[in-house]
User: Which sequence fits this backbone?
């Protein structure tokens, strides 16, 4: 990538990130307009997640990886809405907005891009001291899926109890987290692994060169999303969700910064 192209990608990324931050603030402070603002926020966050990677990787590779993540994630939720697999029984409300194929909200595939891309970026920071270890790729895949599942734990109370975007229906396992069933969470973890298995080959820097500097952009987007979920749940008094969000954000931030500064 030429220097001028890198500067354009960098400027575009930070512009989109700033716009997403403004949309998040407006969505929290203007509840009457939150539906449109939430959709705008997801689009901006997805674009910021994509442009963060295009600063280091070819655009076509990043876009193709994003399409794969969106397709698999959206299809998995569509299957669950139809036949209860792999997340268990779920139904999407009218509040979620227009649906693709009359099944899945059009923003949900983009949410998968945000979760997967930024979770991977976070784990790259955490594992930076071990990037030359033989099994680094497997550790990156597994920990990214776990961090993505943590993202889902923060998302669910906000989506189900604050925005009422979808409903989880009971399963034989009574354990739930603000509506999220254990099967739903395990399903998110499993689908994250499947997505990563397909997209990671496209997100490897193939040109030789000096090791790149730590990239904190994905960490900022990941923490920003969790902070947004926490602020929304705090507005309706879901303090257990706020507490978990704070613990997730604190743990991810500490381990990411520690890894980056190793």
Assistant:
């Amino acid at each position: 990538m030429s220097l001028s192209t890198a500067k354009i990608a960098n400027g575009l990324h930070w512009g989109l990130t700033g716009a997403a931050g403004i949309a998040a603030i407006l969505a929290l402070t203007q509840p009457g307009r939150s539906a449109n603002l939430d959709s705008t926020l997801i689009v901006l966050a997805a674009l910021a997640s994509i442009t963060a990677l295009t600063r280091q990787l070819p655009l076509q590779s990043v876009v193709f990886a994003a399409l794969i993540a969106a397709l698999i994630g959206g299809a998995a939720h569509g299957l669950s809405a139809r036949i209860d697999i792999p997340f268990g029984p779920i139904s999407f409300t009218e509040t979620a907005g227009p649906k693709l194929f009359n099944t899945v909200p059009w923003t949900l595939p983009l949410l998968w891009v945000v979760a997967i891309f930024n979770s991977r970026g976070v784990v790259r920071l955490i594992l930076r001291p071990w990037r030359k270890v033989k099994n680094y790729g497997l550790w990156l895949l597994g920990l990214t899926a776990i961090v993505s599942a943590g993202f889902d734990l923060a998302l669910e109370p906000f989506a189900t109890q604050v925005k009422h975007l979808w409903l989880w229906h009971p399963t034989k396992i009574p354990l739930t987290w603000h509506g999220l069933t254990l099967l739903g969470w395990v399903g998110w973890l499993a689908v994250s692994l499947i997505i990563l298995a397909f997209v990671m080959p496209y997100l490897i820097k193939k040109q030789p060169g000096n090791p790149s500097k730590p990239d904190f952009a994905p960490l900022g987007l990941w923490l920003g999303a969790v902070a947004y979920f926490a602020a929304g749940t705090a507005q309706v008094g879901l303090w257990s969700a706020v507490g978990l969000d704070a613990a997730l954000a604190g743990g991810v931030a500490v381990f990411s910064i520690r890894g980056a500064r190793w």
